[in-house]
Amino acid sequence: MNTDKSTIDAELESLQLDTFGYFLLWTNLQNGLVLDKTAPYAYTVLAMVARTRNQHDDALRLYREAIQRAGTDTLFADVKAKNDLYLDSYRKAGHQAAPEIMVAMHVYLHQNEPAAVDGARPYFERNISFHKTHRRPGSKIPQLDNIKQERLALFTAPEDAVAILSEYKKAGVTHVIGMVNFGGVPMGEVRRTLELMSEEVFPNFK
């Protein structure tokens, strides 16, 4: 894409970004553009700019970046919306094979769902403690109960994990990166999660 600042400014103005949305694009310098490399929002906006310019290869690359960085920063419905936009640009760019789309999420499984939530909580809190003092401007601190309700993490029993992952599959997701050793989860608990995934979850997705 053309990274001339005046050109990008004009494109951004046509999208009618709010002040914070614009700020996200000019936080860290990269090839003349300013991006928060850890956040999905700037990549999504730039992908929209690329689509309006019929630069489908650029849009495809930027949507892929947005999806990979979405993580717990977006609702499940937004994940599906971004996947749909990505697939649209993917096909317009002339690709025929089905794309591979990944999401990353925290995973802590137990046969009993309340036990999974209680067991994961102290490690999740430790995991996000750094973000409480070092988060980017305007970002929210993820809360365990919220991301669980929004289906952005698997703190649950195996049968519920199957149901959630099935929704992701219907939305077009092909791969899941399971973060199972977050915040110092003891190896015995990591192993339990992995065993439940391999024995009771994975067989449903052959």
Distance between the termini: 40 Å
Proportion of beta-strand residues: 5-15%
What is the number of strand segments?
Answer: 5
Provide the low-confidence segments as ranges. 1-5, 15-36
| Oligomer status | single chain
Question: What would the principal axes of the Cα set say about the shape?
Answer: globular
- Biggest sheet strand order reads 4-3-5
Rounded mean pLDDT score: 76
Order of helices and strands: HHEEHHHEHHEHEH
Helix/strand-derived class? mainly alpha
Largest sheet: 3 strands, parallel
> Percent helix among the residues?
55-70%
**How many H/I helices?**
9
Indicate how many domains the architecture comprises. 2
Quick overview:
The chain is mainly α and 206 residues long. The protein contains nine helices and five strands; from the N terminus they run ααββαααβααβαβα.
Can you give a write-up of this model?
The chain is mainly α and 206 residues long. The protein has two domains: 5-92, Serine Threonine Protein Phosphatase 5, Tetratricopeptide repeat; 102-205, no CATH class. It has helices spanning 5-14, 19-24, 41-52, 56-70, 76-92, 113-134, 144-149, 158-170, 187-201, and strands at residues 29-30, 33-34, 102-109, 154-156, 175-179. It has a three-stranded parallel beta sheet. α3 packs antiparallel against α4 and α4 (56-70) runs antiparallel to α5. The radius of gyration is 19 Å and the shape is globular.
